[in-house]
Amino acid sequence: MFETLKQQPADKILQLMLMYAADPREQKIDLGVGVYKNADGITPVMRAVKAAEKRIWEAETTKTYTGLTGDSAFTNGMISLLLDESVARDTIAAVATTGGTGAVRLGFELIRMMNPKARIWVSDPTWPNHIAILNYLGIEIKPYRYFNAETRGVDFDAMIADLQGAEPGDAVLLHGCCHNPTGANLNLVQWQAVADLLNDRGLLPMIDIAYQGFGDGLEEDAAGTRLIAASVPECLIASSCSKNFGIYRERTGILMAISADSGRQALVQDTMATLNRLAYSFPPDHGARIVSTILNDPDLRADWMAELEEVRLSMLSLRQQLADELRRLTGSDRFAFLAGHRGMFSRLGVSPEIVERLRTDYGVYMVGDSRMNIAGMNSKTVPILAQAIVDAGA
Ligand code: LMR
After folding, report:
1. Is-catalytic flag, 243?
2. What crossing angle do the helices spanning 99-114 and 128-137 adopt, rounded to 10°?
3. Residue 394 in this model has a pLDDT that exceeds 90
4. 244 Cα–ligand 1 center, Å
5. Using CA of residue 34, residue 38, residue 39, residue 42, what is the dihedral sign?
6. Average pLDDT of 147-168?
7. In ligand 1, which atom is closest to the CA atom of 34?
8. Residue 7: C-alpha distances to residues 15, 19, 127, 165 (Å)
9. Is residue 303 among the annotated active site residues?
10. Mean pLDDT score, 194-206
């Protein structure tokens, strides 16, 4: 039967990871997959994570199963971190998932279960795996315009115009902060306008937030999500701990569902637990336990927040350095948007040919749509990169 299988389309981001690894050039620069790297090019284990793991190892007496929804210390800690007091706690259902991707997949499945005809509106562009998962699940995708290639900012009028075409029962996928791949984000006035539109048209928002703390700060990055959650009757939120806790391989994420009132919460919770059971039974626990240990201990939490802030500021500084260097080399403000974008990514806005030339001639790896991972640079490589961008014809 295996002969019936067809080659699956390669994931562009993961393909790039392999190409980079296979490139023997020493000067190569990896701006591909969204993984934080420090100035030495290392993805470190955060101090608080190391300390939490030690505590867990010393205290843990069993490896028996947790519940289908995961450990409540984790889900409660994450709800507080993301939503604070913005919505009543007894309206929120939450399950631990296998990373943020697991939460996204579960959220899409829940939407399909509730309304098999639901269409899901996604920003154009979005994270390629959103599209791949939706296609796999057979859910109709409706793109909404999001990015203005001229200004490299959000094309908000176009976004709203497109979402006016959504019908009651459709869902709208939004990036909570640090839009992937563009780096261009909504401001709070725009978030409010989106909330109004969702209410007017009877649409279900699903927010994917994978970079809380990487943009303007932990609280600031949650503001759009909190505003939507507080403004609409129902909302889904998929969140990842991969980046802000740096625990990529532990696969730690959460899906939250907010109901209009507390009466529905138990049913939603039960359904999400069942979806976990059908997919993989129990969600992974180690990463979730690291996160809850950190969030529930004042010292570890403070240290984690301090290190996360260092990470955030280092990316902001790199953005500024690259924008400055490109201004110096080109004598123009064409690349000033790099300093204004937030999060791990910016879309440089150059052609696929230039992206290709950057890779083959200069050993600079970025995704084909010219998405670059800001954390893939350091102060030493910024001038080399800027020169390559200019020389490649950008
Ligand atoms: C990315 O967009 O590079 C990250 O979210 C990693 C991934 O799984 O694609």
Report:
1. yes
2. 40
3. no
4. 13
5. negative
6. 96
7. 3
8. 14, 19, 21, 35
9. no
10. 98
For residue 242 the two structure tokens come to 């991969």
| 52 labelled catalytic | no
Ligand 1: lining residues by beta carbon, under 6 Å = 13, 33-34, 127, 129, 180
C-beta neighbour count of 254 within 10 angstroms: 30
Neighbours of 140 (CB within 10 A): 12
What DSSP assignment string belongs to 170-235? Answer: -EEEEESSS-TTT-----HHHHHHHHHHHHHHT-EEEEEE--TTSSS-HHHHHHHHHHHHHHSS-E
pTM (predicted TM-score): 0.96
Main-chain phi, psi angles of 86, to 5 degrees: -70, -30
Closest C-alpha residue for ligand 1 atom 5: 34
Distance CA 70, CA 224 (A): 26
Asked whether 76 and 309 are in contact (CB, 8 A), the reply is no
Q: Could you tell me where the beta strands, DSSP code E, fall in the chain?
A: 29-30, 92-98, 119-124, 140-145, 147-148, 153-154, 171-175, 204-209, 235-240, 252-258, 345-347, 364-365, 371-373
CA 269 to chain centre: 23
Place of tokens 């390629």: 128
Token pair 């230039």 is found at 354
Query: Domains of the chain (ranges plus CATH)?
Result: 12-45+300-391 (3.90.1150.10), 65-296 (3.40.640.10)
Provide the β-strand partners of residue 98: 252
pLDDT in tens, 59-86: 999 999 999 999 999 999 999 999 999 9
Contact between 328 and 336 (Cβ < 8 Å): no
What the block records as the tokens of 141 is: 């995708």
> From CA 252, how far away is CA 283, in angstroms rounded?
9
